[in-house]
From TrEMBL:
A UniProt-annotated Pfam family: PNP_phzG_C
Keywords for this protein: Flavoprotein, FMN, Oxidoreductase
Binding site for FMN: 44-49, 65-66, 88, 176
GO molecular function, one term: pyridoxamine phosphate oxidase activity
SUPFAM superfamilies per record: FMN-binding split barrel (SSF50475)
Domain Pyridoxine 5'-phosphate oxidase dimerisation C-terminal: start-end pairs: 153-193
Protein name: Pyridoxamine 5'-phosphate oxidase
Domain Pyridoxamine 5'-phosphate oxidase N-terminal: start-end pairs: 27-131
Protein species of origin: Kriegella aquimaris
């Protein structure tokens, strides 16, 4: 059936309810899944930034494994699990690179240590001297100068094509709603637990 309610509005409502109750240190953590260049799926936690134009924004290095995998295949999935409200949201969508202006905004909002790590480290690459790398980061931080966003650091906007909401119940008769884009419009199905 066609649905007038935008699923992203329901997402924001649930997200706000979880944030009000959450005791975890990083309540914006979300599992990003990509298809690996070796044909194995990959999953890792990233930080959800915000919704812009009904798309989910995440950031990180473009030359990291996740960045290279998204460049190779931009069909991705996000999975949120919220402990306090016992809800899960699963999103499938298409990722595209965000603008440089938006990437600059997110990079400037990071603390200096995070900026230095992004400037100096090549996320996921092998190193033979972790201490030396850490010292480079500490030296950069101690310079106390503005760190500009590296060109390989940006983010992705994930336009959803499918969003599933699940509320866990003690009876295990979980409530599940599946929104899908069909002919440029959201449809809604109730699905079995």
């Amino acid at each position: 059936m066609k649905n007038k309610e935008q699923p992203t509005q329901l997402f924001l409502k649930w997200f706000d309810e979880e944030l009000k109750l959450s005791k975890v240190r990083i309540p914006t953590a979300v599992c990003l899944s990509t298809m690996g260049t070796d044909d194995f799926p990959n999953a890792r936690f990233v930080s959800f930034k915000e919704l812009i134009d009904d798309s989910f924004i995440i950031t990180g290095p473009l030359n990291s494994r996740k960045g290279l995998e998204i460049e190779n295949n931009n069909k991705v999935a996000l999975t949120f699990w919220w402990t306090e409200t016992e809800r899960q949201v699963r999103i499938q969508g298409i990722a595209s690179k965000i603008s440089d202006q938006l990437a600059d905004k997110y990079f400037e909002a990071r603390n200096t240590n995070s900026q230095a790590v992004s400037l100096i480290c090549e996320q996921g690459k092998e190193t033979d001297n972790l201490k030396k790398l850490e010292q480079k980061v500490l030296d950069k931080v101690s310079e106390n100068t503005k760190i500009s966003r590296p060109q390989n650091w940006s983010g992705f906007s994930i336009k959803p094509t499918r969003i599933e909401f699940m509320e866990f119940k003690k009876t295990r008769f979980h409530e599940r709603k599946l929104y899908q884009v069909v002919a440029d419009d959201w449809t809604l199905k109730n699905i079995q637990p």
